[in-house]
Amino acid sequence: xxxxxxxxxxxxxxxxxxxxxxxxxxxxxxxxxxxxxxxxxxxxxxxxxxxxxxxxxxxxxxxxxxxxxxxxxxxxxxxxxxxxxxxxxxxxxxxxxxxxxxxxxxxxxxxxxxxxxxxxxxxxxxxxxxxxxxxxxxxxxxxxxxxxxxxxxxxxxxxxxxxxxxxxxxxxxxxxxxxxxxxxxxxxxxxxxxxxxxxxxxxxxxxxxxxxxxxxxxxxxxxxxxxxxxxxxxxxxxxxxxxxxxxxxxxxxxxxxxxxxxxxxxxxxxxxxxxxxxxxxxxxxxxxxxxxxxxxxxxxxxxxxxxxxxxxxxxxxxxxxxxxxxxxxxxxxxxxxxxxxxxxxxxxxxxxxxxxxxxxxxxxxxxxxxxxxxxxxxxxx
Length: 381
Prior knowledge:
The chain is an alpha/beta fold and 381 residues long. The protein is built from 12 helices and 16 strands.
């Protein structure tokens, strides 16, 4: 960027006044993002208390819903933030409390876009975890949920999509004429690791990156490149003769790469779902005499609970798991000694301000210089 994000308000003209709609799935994250934007605006001499615009998506007892916005959005550069993975939001359905699914959250997003009635100057959607993002390609006769969802948003007038660590960023090919930014919070993760793990040594002799599979190779290659350390990888050997829970089961994880003996290992992926694959890798690495093992997932959702990770931590198999605040984390997860929360709210605020002022986001997307300075600060360079 041509200027630091803190003084963009005063150095560049904005496209239109900012308006932020934080859906009920991201009230905490939306509040943090708003606080950064308000602070920067006040430094630039603007008298503003909040950029947040209230909205609501109530339900009828039959399950039908509607969306409405509680103040004007006319002429606003509107940013709608949503977490389609937040299953903690519930609504009344025929007398039962029904947990919102990704489908429900996506429908509510469309309701709010409709409620804006085309009056906003521009609409950008910040959807950290992409709706349908895990169903990103077609095998045999299957739907392409994410591609269709993106096309639907484009048809509704959305100008930009900002997502974080997309399962497969090539899904943007479905909307080649719409803005699509896939953000990688590499700097925030390394900053949290160096802050929380006091004795970590990121030198080539003591530290190594391991990719959990070929799909995560690019994100792990970036970590290895900026840190100047070696990298190995696992590949999943699957049984293609059967299908379990919609996919071919993994028979074994096979390791390729340099020896891991005595080295601290960092494994990065986009999502920890059940967590079984991550634990299988940790046990396999320990068999190869690896040192401490730290896992990272942008979305640490733990669909099968935390018990197995508790045991792995107690047994010294895994030493820490890092995850961002971009999706819902249970209070139980946040209380675990092995879990480290990575705050990405300031990073998203940078993006909002850069888009609003129509300036380059290249330095936000590639934080190489910031990582270099971070390593120097901690004596790693």
